[in-house]
Amino acid sequence: MRYLSLPIFRTSLLFSVFIFSLTVLLTSCEEVPHTGRGRLILLSESEENKMGVAAYKEVVEKEKRSTDAEAIALVERVGKRLAAAAPDKGFTYEFTVLESPTINAFCLPGGKVAIYTGILPYCKNEAGLAAVMGHEIAHAIARHGGERMSQGMLISGISTGVDAILKEQGVSPTTEKIAMTAFGAGAQIGVLLPYSRKHELEADYLGLLYMAKAGYDPKEAPEFWKRFSALSSNTPNFLSTHPASEDRAAQLTAKQAEAMKLYESSPKYGAGAPVPEKYRTIPTPAPEQKKAEPKKEETKPEQPKKKKRK
Fold it and tell me: With CB atoms 3.0 to 4.6 Å apart as the test, which of 111, 113, 238, 255 could cross-link to 93 if both were Cys?
């Protein structure tokens, strides 16, 4: 059996303490409303909102705005109902539809929401769109962006501190490099990625409650993720920043009883209107084409040389 040398052992122990301390810090400072999850945020809400407004303006100026009146009306109608149902954070909501095949949506701090038309086929109807928009609004209300920024600031500072400690202890450059690489991987897989997945599941859950309270059938939320699962990547779940679509559908199905209580006491829109007809077909992925192999030049057999007559 091999034993770690003393410098390596001290380094491993040091990193274990840092990771443990980091986890404690990230889970013990304040709570997310409704879920009660502990979090650490180093930014003020006003700072977050200012950054959100600036980022939103930059994105909207670069992207092409949709001119489809039906799609714009659909997004604004669903968005306003969700904003009325969600906790009041003093947001000045804006809803923008961006004409792009990109399958995406976001809500930045301050309530700045953008929906790419590429995601509408997967939404299918107002309720599917409400699941998406509710999820994105939940990210902003739960301040996931500020929390992620705070995690990055903290980990960056600790990483710098560990680097200085190792040099002070006279750890060899090779050992130091290995140790810092291990710390970086430990921070990424042990803290940042799980928190990213936790944020997504938390936003799914809160968004489900918002859509139910707004009057949309919560049973449509897991159906959206089942349709969306066709886009799932092959990245192992523990290395992915987002949980698998199947896992999300399962969680939303498990939370239906709680959501239905809110839905029963809300105005009933059910599944709502379908998305505009031009956005109802989910695009079929193009089959991968094999690269054409270069044609081999045909080599003609050499003809025997004719002897010259003398």
Answer: 111
